[in-house]
Design a protein that fits this description.
Subcellular location: Cell membrane
Number of helices: 5
Oligomer: single chain
Strand content: under 5%
Membrane topology: Multi-pass membrane protein
Number of strands: 0
Protein name: Lipopolysaccharide export system permease protein LptF
GO cellular component, one term: ATP-binding cassette (ABC) transporter complex
Number of domains: 1
Keywords: Cell membrane, Membrane, Transmembrane, Transmembrane helix
Length: 115
């Protein structure tokens, strides 16, 4: 793996993990809010509620992944563009396909792993 690939993946992974978990948290809280009437006041054990939240997070992961990928790629590529790193790479003769290759491979790996 070349240094450029590592740098692009590193600049993508940090926002990806943050946005994925934020989006997953929002989706879980939305579902918990909708199911609050059925849970509240029933004397349900806290272990059961935590188990429910864990299963709910696993169920909502396929919905949170595309949103997290979209937001993190906007953030990472926007940061590369803001710091004129895209311009430097283009002036060095590196094509846009070559710049995007590590991200596409990583996203395809996540997609196969998810489904």
């Amino acid at each position: 793996m070349k240094i450029l690939d590592k740098y692009i993946l590193k600049s993508f992974l940090q926002p990806f993990l943050a946005t994925f978990f934020v989006v997953l948290f929002v989706l879980v809280m939305q579902s918990l809010w909708l199911a609050f009437d059925e849970i509240a006041g029933k004397g349900i054990d806290i272990f059961f509620i935590l188990k429910f939240l864990g299963y709910l997070a696993l169920t909502l992961t396929p919905m949170a992944l595309p949103i997290g990928i979209l937001l993190s790629s906007i953030m990472a590529l926007g940061n590369l563009s803001e710091n004129y790193e895209f311009a430097a790479l283009k002036s060095a003769g590196i094509s846009l396909k070559r710049i995007m290759r590590p991200l596409i491979i990583f996203i395809l790996f996540i997609s196969v792993f998810n489904f």
